Amino acid sequence: MKKNTWLLMILFGLGICSAFGQHRTTDDIFGERNEVYFSFHLDDLSLIPMLSRIISLDDLDPASGKVYAYANREAWEEFLDHGTGYEILTPPSMLTRDIRMVDKVDLRNLNDWDFYPTYDGYVDMMNQYAADYPDICEVFSIGGTYHERDILVAKISDNAGVREAEPQFFYTSSMHGDETAGYVLMLRLIDHLLSNYGEDPRITHMVDNIEIWINPLANPDGAYASGNSNIYGATRYNAQGVDLNRNFPDPEDGPHPDGNAWQIETRAFMDVAEENQFAMSCNIHGGAEVANYPWDTWWFPTADEDWWIYVCREYADTAQLYSPPGYFSGFNNGITNGYAWYTISGGRQDYMTYFHQGREFTLEISNTKLVPASQLPDLWEYNYRSFLNYMEQVLYGVTGTVTDKDSQDPLRAEVFVLDHEEDSSWVYSGSEHGNYYRLLYEGSYDIRFSSPGYIPEIVENVMVTNRDATDLNIALTHQFSGMEEMQGTDFNIYPNPVSGNYFLVTCRDEIIDVYVMDITGKEIFHQSGIHEHRAFVETSGWINGPYVVLIYTPGGIYSGKLEII
Ligand SMILES: [Zn+2]
Question: Which domains does the chain have, with CATH numbers?
Answer without folding.
Answer: 3-94 (3.30.70), 101-395 (3.40.630.10), 397-476 (2.60.40.1120), 491-564 (2.60.40.1220)
